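Moderator note: this is an archived Q&A kept for reference. The question asked for a predicted structure of one protein chain; the sequence and the answer are reproduced below.
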Amino acid sequence: MSDNQSQGQINIELDETVADGIYSNLAIINHSASEFVLDYVTLMPGVPKAKVKSRIILTPQHAKRLLKALGENIHRFEMAHGEIKDSDQPQIPLNFGPTGQA
């Protein structure tokens, strides 16, 4: 066992295709008693249809940790760059298939 592993550190690899990332300007969040599902979508102006580009499934505990980590990072960002303005955008009607709605 290496010194890093004995100290509880994890070696994380980032594949080149994953490192490119996926742009998303809409996140749809659903949950059940056992998991949170985050669907990331890219909406394009004038295009009435969009596809889910990525889906992340989290346990409730990990979802809460993500909320805390995101909040801390937003706070640090705003301290360095100023307040992030939340633009008023019209409500987007979302349809999933012929009968489902989010």
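Archived answer notes: The helical segments are 3-6, 16-19, 60-81.
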